[in-house]
TrEMBL record:
<dbReference type="InterPro" id="IPR051422">
    <property type="entry name" value="AlkB_tRNA_MeTrf/Diox"/>
</dbReference>
<keyword id="KW-0808">Transferase</keyword>
<keyword id="KW-0489">Methyltransferase</keyword>
<feature type="domain" description="Methyltransferase type 11">
    <location>
        <begin position="155"/>
        <end position="219"/>
    </location>
</feature>
<dbReference type="InterPro" id="IPR029063">
    <property type="entry name" value="SAM-dependent_MTases_sf"/>
</dbReference>
<dbReference type="GO" id="GO:0008757">
    <property type="term" value="F:S-adenosylmethionine-dependent methyltransferase activity"/>
</dbReference>
<dbReference type="GO" id="GO:0030488">
    <property type="term" value="P:tRNA methylation"/>
</dbReference>
<dbReference type="GO" id="GO:0005634">
    <property type="term" value="C:nucleus"/>
</dbReference>
<protein>
    <submittedName>
        <fullName>Methyltransf_11 domain-containing protein</fullName>
    </submittedName>
</protein>
<dbReference type="GO" id="GO:0005737">
    <property type="term" value="C:cytoplasm"/>
</dbReference>
<dbReference type="GO" id="GO:0000049">
    <property type="term" value="F:tRNA binding"/>
</dbReference>
<dbReference type="InterPro" id="IPR013216">
    <property type="entry name" value="Methyltransf_11"/>
</dbReference>
<dbReference type="GO" id="GO:0106335">
    <property type="term" value="F:tRNA (5-carboxymethyluridine(34)-5-O)-methyltransferase activity"/>
</dbReference>
<dbReference type="Pfam" id="PF08241">
    <property type="entry name" value="Methyltransf_11"/>
</dbReference>
<dbReference type="GO" id="GO:0002098">
    <property type="term" value="P:tRNA wobble uridine modification"/>
</dbReference>
């Protein structure tokens, strides 16, 4: 069997790490690669092939179909309104990105409306650029030396399942590089790796423990530092089961619904919580969170708010760290954890190691920072 691959490198700008420059590409280049033997798709791992199937083909009882109904369709419907409420970076995430070395290449797996793609990301929009295609443009329109002195700069790719959210990711000063894809089927070749990655408020939308574990394994597999002196870094945020006093995610406030079981045909309206049994509800981790979307149609008779229910798995204390440990062990990485009472281990003396650099609770979320040293 003959397998074909086609890649088009269109006119644009190429990032040169060594020189901290953007070079204008004068023409599009069409690369066609052929090979004989087994088709590329036949060689894909079964779980990745399944993730690439259309949603209509997936059985209704699968996690993929469940998430299509209770996550992906919802975000496509509420994207514009949702994006208006997601504009301020979380402090821990901003600090993590600030610490990335100059020239690093990163991945935002679940980038949403791209609010983390515009800080120090190198994909700066160049308006009315020079007509000379061979001219070199310094990053951000400034000399490389000035960039080095002022702030770290990196290249970060945004990936999200929602095409509607991706379309909202462009910024007045930045046009980020975006990929329409799934965190359970990363559309990158095995030899394309990143120096760092973030997954912010994404993993809690996966409906089974196996899918959450697989997503973390793929993150661990896709991060490997480009230089032996560096370590790979990953930051993950998920919603917490343990909510603060000021949290709006409360059963009593009517902001949570019990999620239907996988394969269940029950609708959200038939799953209204029994508030008289609040203690039993408090133990639930799989929930639906309503999002009220106002219809601003001209016809006032149809101007009616519509509610969409998104699926969330609320992580208990220690659950996220345990998932990282299981993912590391399944990839045959040594696992270590630093706590506040233990001095930092010299990771440089251990090969193929996954280290929990830090973890904690922040504003109704659990987070974990991972450090990787692989060879």
């Amino acid at each position: 069997m003959m397998a074909w691959w086609c890649f088009v490198a269109g006119p644009g700008w190429d990032f040169v790490v060594a020189g901290l420059l953007c070079l204008a590409r004068p023409a599009a280049i069409n690369l066609v690669i052929t090979s004989t033997g087994t088709s590329h798709f036949d060689q894909l791992q079964p779980h990745r092939y399944h993730a690439m199937r259309s949603d209509d083909q997936a059985p209704e009882c699968t996690g993929a179909a469940y998430e299509q109904q209770h996550v992906h369709k919802v975000y496509e419907s509420i994207a514009a309104h949702f994006s208006q409420t997601r504009y301020k970076p979380w402090p821990i995430v901003a600090d993590f990105l600030d610490r990335q070395p100059v020239g690093s290449i990163g991945l935002d797996a679940g980038s949403g409306n791209g609010k983390y793609l515009h800080g120090h990301n190198i994909t700066t929009q160049i308006k009315n650029g020079p007509s000379n295609p061979s001219q070199q443009i310094a990053l951000g329109g400034r000399p490389p030396g000035q960039v080095l002195e002022e702030e770290p700069r990196y290249f970060m790719l945004g990936l999200d399942r929602s095409a509607s959210l991706l379309s909202l990711s462009q910024h007045i000063h930045s046009v980020p590089e975006l990929v329409h894809g799934d965190c359970l089927s990363l559309p990158f070749r095995s030899n394309l790796i990143f120096d760092f990655a973030i997954s912010i408020a994404t993993l809690h939308h996966l409906s089974t423990p196996e899918r959450r574990l697989e997503a973390i394994k793929l993150l661990l597999s896709s991060v490997k530092p480009s230089h032996p002196s560096r370590t790979g870094r990953i930051l993950i945020f998920v919603w917490a089961h343990e909510q603060g006093e000021k949290s709006r995610r409360k059963w009593a406030k009517g902001t949570l619904l019990p999620a239907p079981k996988l394969g269940s045909t029950a609708s959200a309206t038939s799953l209204e919580p029994d508030l008289e049994n609040i203690e039993e509800l408090a133990n639930l981790q799989d929930v639906l969170v309503p999002w009220v979307l106002n219809n601003h149609a001209d016809d006032k008779t149809t101007d009616k708010a519509k509610t969409y229910n998104r699926y969330y798995h609320l992580f208990r204390e220690g659950e996220l760290v345990e998932l990282v440990k299981r993912a590391a062990e399944s990839l045959e990485l040594c696992f270590n954890q630093i706590d506040s009472n233990t001095p930092e281990s010299p990771l440089s003396h251990q090969k193929d190691c996954c280290l929990i650099k830090g973890h904690g609770w922040e504003a109704d979320n659990w987070w974990v920072e991972i450090e990787l040293k692989t060879h």
